[in-house]
Amino acid sequence: MLALISFISLFQDNSTGLIASAISMICFGFADSLWKIPTQVFGAARSVFFRNIFVVAIVLPYFIISERRSFIAEQAVWATLGIGVLAYLGLFFFAKSTKYGMTSVVVPVSSTNTLITLSISIISFDSGINWITGIGVLASLIGLAMLKVNWKNGKLEMVIFKESGLRFAILAAIFWGFSFAYSYYAVTFTGPALFTIMLESIILILAGLHALILQFLNRRSTNPFKKDMGVLEKFSETGGKIRFSFQWKQQWMVIAIIGILGAVGTIFNSIALDKASINTVTGIVVIAPFISVVFGQVYYGEVLTTQQKFAIFLIMAGVFAVSYFRYY
Predict the structure, then answer these.
(1) Which of 89, 119, 140, 192 would be a feasible disulfide site paired with 270, CB 3.0-4.6 Å?
(2) The whole model's pTM is what?
Protein backbone atom coordinates (compact mmCIF):
# COMPACT_ATOMS: atom_id res chain seq x y z
CA MET A 1 0.00 0.00 0.00
CA LEU A 2 2.88 2.38 0.80
CA ALA A 3 4.38 1.59 -2.60
CA LEU A 4 1.05 2.45 -4.25
CA ILE A 5 0.85 5.77 -2.37
CA SER A 6 4.43 6.61 -3.32
CA PHE A 7 3.73 5.81 -6.97
CA ILE A 8 0.57 7.92 -7.09
CA SER A 9 2.38 10.83 -5.45
CA LEU A 10 4.54 11.07 -8.59
CA PHE A 11 1.55 12.47 -10.47
CA GLN A 12 1.39 16.24 -10.20
CA ASP A 13 -2.32 16.89 -10.02
CA ASN A 14 -5.29 17.66 -7.78
CA SER A 15 -5.13 15.39 -4.69
CA THR A 16 -8.85 14.63 -4.86
CA GLY A 17 -8.46 13.50 -8.46
CA LEU A 18 -5.46 11.33 -7.56
CA ILE A 19 -7.20 9.61 -4.65
CA ALA A 20 -10.36 9.09 -6.71
CA SER A 21 -8.29 7.58 -9.54
CA ALA A 22 -6.55 5.18 -7.13
CA ILE A 23 -9.83 4.01 -5.60
CA SER A 24 -11.29 3.54 -9.08
CA MET A 25 -8.24 1.52 -10.16
CA ILE A 26 -8.43 -0.85 -7.16
CA CYS A 27 -12.19 -1.38 -7.57
CA PHE A 28 -11.95 -2.04 -11.30
CA GLY A 29 -8.99 -4.38 -10.79
CA PHE A 30 -10.83 -6.68 -8.39
CA ALA A 31 -14.20 -6.39 -10.18
CA ASP A 32 -12.67 -7.40 -13.52
CA SER A 33 -11.10 -10.43 -11.84
CA LEU A 34 -14.41 -11.93 -10.68
CA TRP A 35 -16.34 -12.17 -13.97
CA LYS A 36 -15.29 -15.66 -15.08
CA ILE A 37 -17.58 -17.93 -13.06
CA PRO A 38 -20.80 -15.82 -13.29
CA THR A 39 -20.44 -15.53 -17.07
CA GLN A 40 -19.90 -19.27 -17.37
CA VAL A 41 -23.11 -19.85 -15.39
CA PHE A 42 -25.44 -17.10 -16.66
CA GLY A 43 -23.80 -15.95 -19.89
CA ALA A 44 -22.53 -12.47 -20.70
CA ALA A 45 -25.78 -10.51 -21.17
CA ARG A 46 -27.48 -11.79 -18.02
CA SER A 47 -24.32 -11.30 -15.96
CA VAL A 48 -24.08 -7.66 -17.09
CA PHE A 49 -27.78 -7.14 -16.35
CA PHE A 50 -27.54 -8.57 -12.83
CA ARG A 51 -24.34 -6.64 -12.19
CA ASN A 52 -25.95 -3.35 -13.18
CA ILE A 53 -28.95 -3.83 -10.91
CA PHE A 54 -26.51 -3.54 -8.01
CA VAL A 55 -24.60 -0.74 -9.73
CA VAL A 56 -27.67 1.46 -10.29
CA ALA A 57 -28.87 0.78 -6.73
CA ILE A 58 -25.62 2.35 -5.48
CA VAL A 59 -25.13 5.21 -7.95
CA LEU A 60 -28.75 6.41 -7.64
CA PRO A 61 -28.32 7.67 -4.03
CA TYR A 62 -25.01 9.21 -5.10
CA PHE A 63 -26.85 11.10 -7.84
CA ILE A 64 -29.60 12.24 -5.47
CA ILE A 65 -27.28 13.67 -2.81
CA SER A 66 -24.64 15.08 -5.13
CA GLU A 67 -24.33 18.60 -6.45
CA ARG A 68 -25.83 19.00 -9.93
CA ARG A 69 -25.07 21.37 -12.73
CA SER A 70 -27.56 24.22 -13.12
CA PHE A 71 -27.42 23.95 -16.90
CA ILE A 72 -26.81 20.85 -19.03
CA ALA A 73 -26.39 21.09 -22.77
CA GLU A 74 -28.74 18.86 -24.75
CA GLN A 75 -25.82 17.71 -26.91
CA ALA A 76 -24.03 16.41 -23.80
CA VAL A 77 -27.05 14.29 -22.83
CA TRP A 78 -27.24 12.75 -26.31
CA ALA A 79 -23.51 12.18 -26.24
CA THR A 80 -23.86 10.34 -22.93
CA LEU A 81 -26.55 8.12 -24.46
CA GLY A 82 -24.21 7.22 -27.30
CA ILE A 83 -21.38 6.57 -24.85
CA GLY A 84 -23.70 4.28 -22.87
CA VAL A 85 -24.40 2.13 -25.92
CA LEU A 86 -20.70 1.80 -26.68
CA ALA A 87 -19.93 1.10 -23.02
CA TYR A 88 -22.49 -1.71 -22.92
CA LEU A 89 -21.05 -3.35 -26.01
CA GLY A 90 -17.60 -3.10 -24.47
CA LEU A 91 -18.80 -4.62 -21.19
CA PHE A 92 -20.71 -7.39 -22.99
CA PHE A 93 -17.71 -8.48 -25.05
CA PHE A 94 -15.46 -8.18 -22.00
CA ALA A 95 -17.78 -10.54 -20.12
CA LYS A 96 -17.63 -13.01 -23.02
CA SER A 97 -13.84 -12.80 -23.07
CA THR A 98 -13.63 -13.73 -19.38
CA LYS A 99 -16.00 -16.64 -20.01
CA TYR A 100 -13.77 -18.24 -22.65
CA GLY A 101 -10.29 -16.89 -21.91
CA MET A 102 -7.82 -16.62 -19.05
CA THR A 103 -8.50 -13.63 -16.81
CA SER A 104 -4.78 -12.88 -16.56
CA VAL A 105 -4.66 -12.53 -20.37
CA VAL A 106 -7.99 -11.06 -21.54
CA VAL A 107 -8.12 -8.26 -18.94
CA PRO A 108 -4.77 -6.73 -20.04
CA VAL A 109 -5.77 -7.17 -23.70
CA SER A 110 -9.06 -5.31 -23.12
CA SER A 111 -7.05 -2.47 -21.55
CA THR A 112 -5.63 -1.67 -24.99
CA ASN A 113 -8.78 0.43 -25.46
CA THR A 114 -6.35 3.27 -24.73
CA LEU A 115 -4.85 2.78 -28.20
CA ILE A 116 -8.30 3.28 -29.74
CA THR A 117 -8.87 6.37 -27.61
CA LEU A 118 -5.51 7.74 -28.72
CA SER A 119 -6.36 7.15 -32.38
CA ILE A 120 -9.68 8.97 -31.99
CA SER A 121 -7.97 11.88 -30.23
CA ILE A 122 -5.50 12.22 -33.10
CA ILE A 123 -8.18 12.03 -35.79
CA SER A 124 -11.09 13.89 -34.16
CA PHE A 125 -9.38 16.38 -31.87
CA ASP A 126 -6.20 17.00 -33.84
CA SER A 127 -4.06 15.79 -30.93
CA GLY A 128 -0.37 15.16 -31.34
CA ILE A 129 1.75 12.15 -30.45
CA ASN A 130 5.21 12.20 -28.87
CA TRP A 131 7.99 9.64 -28.98
CA ILE A 132 7.10 8.11 -25.59
CA THR A 133 3.53 7.55 -26.72
CA GLY A 134 4.81 6.06 -29.96
CA ILE A 135 6.98 3.58 -28.07
CA GLY A 136 3.99 2.70 -25.89
CA VAL A 137 1.83 1.96 -28.93
CA LEU A 138 4.58 -0.17 -30.45
CA ALA A 139 5.12 -2.11 -27.20
CA SER A 140 1.39 -2.84 -26.87
CA LEU A 141 1.12 -4.03 -30.47
CA ILE A 142 4.17 -6.29 -30.06
CA GLY A 143 2.60 -7.70 -26.87
CA LEU A 144 -0.69 -8.41 -28.67
CA ALA A 145 1.21 -10.10 -31.51
CA MET A 146 3.11 -12.27 -29.02
CA LEU A 147 -0.21 -13.50 -27.59
CA LYS A 148 -1.37 -14.40 -31.09
CA VAL A 149 1.80 -16.16 -32.21
CA ASN A 150 3.53 -18.95 -30.33
CA TRP A 151 7.09 -20.16 -30.89
CA LYS A 152 7.12 -23.93 -30.41
CA ASN A 153 9.60 -26.57 -31.53
CA GLY A 154 11.38 -24.04 -33.71
CA LYS A 155 8.17 -23.08 -35.56
CA LEU A 156 5.71 -20.23 -35.38
CA GLU A 157 2.21 -21.44 -34.51
CA MET A 158 -0.94 -19.32 -34.48
CA VAL A 159 -2.93 -19.35 -31.25
CA ILE A 160 -6.51 -20.54 -31.79
CA PHE A 161 -8.17 -17.15 -31.89
CA LYS A 162 -11.74 -18.37 -31.59
CA GLU A 163 -11.28 -20.38 -28.42
CA SER A 164 -8.94 -18.12 -26.46
CA GLY A 165 -11.32 -15.25 -25.67
CA LEU A 166 -8.87 -12.84 -27.32
CA ARG A 167 -11.29 -11.86 -30.08
CA PHE A 168 -13.88 -10.75 -27.52
CA ALA A 169 -11.25 -8.90 -25.47
CA ILE A 170 -10.17 -7.00 -28.60
CA LEU A 171 -13.80 -6.15 -29.43
CA ALA A 172 -14.24 -4.92 -25.83
CA ALA A 173 -11.14 -2.76 -26.24
CA ILE A 174 -12.51 -1.25 -29.46
CA PHE A 175 -15.93 -0.32 -28.05
CA TRP A 176 -14.49 0.89 -24.75
CA GLY A 177 -11.91 2.91 -26.65
CA PHE A 178 -14.63 4.82 -28.47
CA SER A 179 -16.70 5.35 -25.30
CA PHE A 180 -13.73 6.53 -23.22
CA ALA A 181 -12.60 8.94 -25.93
CA TYR A 182 -15.68 11.08 -25.37
CA SER A 183 -16.41 10.38 -21.67
CA TYR A 184 -14.13 13.16 -20.45
CA TYR A 185 -16.04 15.77 -22.45
CA ALA A 186 -19.45 14.41 -21.41
CA VAL A 187 -18.48 14.49 -17.71
CA THR A 188 -17.27 18.08 -18.12
CA PHE A 189 -20.71 19.24 -19.31
CA THR A 190 -23.05 16.92 -17.37
CA GLY A 191 -21.12 16.49 -14.13
CA PRO A 192 -19.94 13.16 -12.69
CA ALA A 193 -23.21 12.29 -10.91
CA LEU A 194 -25.57 12.67 -13.88
CA PHE A 195 -23.06 11.06 -16.24
CA THR A 196 -22.65 8.03 -13.96
CA ILE A 197 -26.37 7.38 -13.40
CA MET A 198 -27.16 7.82 -17.09
CA LEU A 199 -24.30 5.59 -18.19
CA GLU A 200 -25.08 2.72 -15.82
CA SER A 201 -28.86 2.97 -16.42
CA ILE A 202 -28.36 2.72 -20.16
CA ILE A 203 -26.17 -0.35 -19.68
CA LEU A 204 -28.83 -1.90 -17.39
CA ILE A 205 -31.62 -1.33 -19.92
CA LEU A 206 -29.61 -2.61 -22.88
CA ALA A 207 -28.42 -5.69 -20.99
CA GLY A 208 -31.99 -6.45 -19.88
CA LEU A 209 -33.31 -6.15 -23.43
CA HIS A 210 -30.45 -8.28 -24.75
CA ALA A 211 -31.11 -10.96 -22.13
CA LEU A 212 -34.83 -11.02 -22.97
CA ILE A 213 -34.08 -11.37 -26.68
CA LEU A 214 -31.78 -14.31 -25.97
CA GLN A 215 -34.44 -15.80 -23.71
CA PHE A 216 -36.99 -15.54 -26.55
CA LEU A 217 -34.59 -17.13 -29.04
CA ASN A 218 -33.98 -20.01 -26.62
CA ARG A 219 -37.67 -20.58 -25.85
CA ARG A 220 -37.57 -24.02 -27.53
CA SER A 221 -34.34 -25.06 -25.85
CA THR A 222 -34.36 -28.32 -23.90
CA ASN A 223 -32.36 -26.57 -21.20
CA PRO A 224 -34.91 -24.81 -18.93
CA PHE A 225 -32.18 -22.58 -17.51
CA LYS A 226 -31.85 -20.91 -20.94
CA LYS A 227 -35.57 -20.18 -21.20
CA ASP A 228 -35.72 -17.74 -18.29
CA MET A 229 -33.44 -15.32 -16.47
CA GLY A 230 -32.11 -18.08 -14.23
CA VAL A 231 -32.94 -16.40 -10.92
CA LEU A 232 -36.07 -18.39 -10.00
CA GLU A 233 -37.10 -21.99 -10.58
CA LYS A 234 -40.11 -24.20 -9.89
CA PHE A 235 -39.52 -26.86 -7.29
CA SER A 236 -43.03 -28.29 -7.29
CA GLU A 237 -44.56 -29.02 -10.68
CA THR A 238 -48.01 -29.61 -9.20
CA GLY A 239 -48.10 -26.71 -6.78
CA GLY A 240 -46.12 -24.34 -8.95
CA LYS A 241 -44.01 -23.20 -6.03
CA ILE A 242 -41.10 -20.91 -6.86
CA ARG A 243 -37.71 -20.57 -5.22
CA PHE A 244 -34.35 -19.05 -6.02
CA SER A 245 -32.40 -21.22 -8.43
CA PHE A 246 -29.35 -23.15 -7.30
CA GLN A 247 -27.18 -21.12 -9.70
CA TRP A 248 -28.42 -17.80 -8.32
CA LYS A 249 -27.84 -18.89 -4.72
CA GLN A 250 -24.26 -19.77 -5.63
CA GLN A 251 -23.41 -16.68 -7.69
CA TRP A 252 -25.51 -13.76 -6.44
CA MET A 253 -22.89 -12.68 -3.92
CA VAL A 254 -20.13 -12.66 -6.54
CA ILE A 255 -22.31 -10.65 -8.91
CA ALA A 256 -23.18 -8.25 -6.08
CA ILE A 257 -19.49 -7.71 -5.33
CA ILE A 258 -18.78 -7.09 -9.02
CA GLY A 259 -21.64 -4.58 -9.10
CA ILE A 260 -20.63 -2.80 -5.90
CA LEU A 261 -16.99 -2.54 -6.93
CA GLY A 262 -18.02 -1.46 -10.42
CA ALA A 263 -20.33 1.23 -9.02
CA VAL A 264 -17.73 2.60 -6.63
CA GLY A 265 -15.10 2.46 -9.39
CA THR A 266 -17.35 4.28 -11.84
CA ILE A 267 -18.31 6.98 -9.31
CA PHE A 268 -14.71 7.70 -8.35
CA ASN A 269 -13.60 7.53 -11.99
CA SER A 270 -16.17 10.20 -12.87
CA ILE A 271 -15.06 12.33 -9.90
CA ALA A 272 -11.44 11.91 -10.98
CA LEU A 273 -12.23 12.99 -14.53
CA ASP A 274 -13.93 16.08 -13.12
CA LYS A 275 -11.03 16.97 -10.78
CA ALA A 276 -7.86 15.86 -12.59
CA SER A 277 -6.47 15.76 -16.11
CA ILE A 278 -7.52 12.83 -18.27
CA ASN A 279 -3.95 11.56 -18.72
CA THR A 280 -3.44 11.40 -14.95
CA VAL A 281 -6.73 9.56 -14.38
CA THR A 282 -6.18 7.01 -17.13
CA GLY A 283 -2.50 6.66 -16.23
CA ILE A 284 -3.52 5.41 -12.78
CA VAL A 285 -6.66 3.45 -13.71
CA VAL A 286 -4.91 1.42 -16.43
CA ILE A 287 -2.75 -0.20 -13.75
CA ALA A 288 -5.86 -2.17 -12.69
CA PRO A 289 -5.14 -5.19 -14.98
CA PHE A 290 -2.09 -5.97 -12.83
CA ILE A 291 -4.54 -6.98 -10.07
CA SER A 292 -6.36 -9.28 -12.50
CA VAL A 293 -3.11 -10.88 -13.67
CA VAL A 294 -2.16 -11.78 -10.10
CA PHE A 295 -5.74 -12.80 -9.23
CA GLY A 296 -6.01 -15.08 -12.27
CA GLN A 297 -2.86 -16.97 -11.37
CA VAL A 298 -3.48 -17.19 -7.61
CA TYR A 299 -7.26 -17.77 -7.49
CA TYR A 300 -8.06 -19.46 -10.82
CA GLY A 301 -4.74 -21.29 -11.01
CA GLU A 302 -3.97 -19.94 -14.48
CA VAL A 303 -0.50 -20.78 -15.72
CA LEU A 304 1.20 -18.35 -18.10
CA THR A 305 4.15 -19.19 -20.31
CA THR A 306 7.21 -16.98 -20.25
CA GLN A 307 6.16 -15.58 -23.62
CA GLN A 308 2.68 -14.72 -22.34
CA LYS A 309 4.10 -13.03 -19.23
CA PHE A 310 6.43 -10.91 -21.33
CA ALA A 311 3.60 -10.10 -23.76
CA ILE A 312 1.34 -8.96 -20.91
CA PHE A 313 4.17 -6.85 -19.48
CA LEU A 314 4.65 -5.14 -22.86
CA ILE A 315 0.91 -4.50 -23.20
CA MET A 316 0.55 -3.02 -19.72
CA ALA A 317 3.72 -0.93 -19.98
CA GLY A 318 2.68 0.31 -23.41
CA VAL A 319 -0.84 1.15 -22.29
CA PHE A 320 0.50 3.08 -19.28
CA ALA A 321 2.89 5.05 -21.50
CA VAL A 322 0.10 5.91 -23.92
CA SER A 323 -2.33 6.82 -21.12
CA TYR A 324 -0.05 9.07 -19.13
CA PHE A 325 2.17 10.67 -21.76
CA ARG A 326 -0.20 11.10 -24.71
CA TYR A 327 -1.04 14.75 -23.90
CA TYR A 328 2.45 15.83 -22.90
Answers:
(1) 192
(2) 0.83
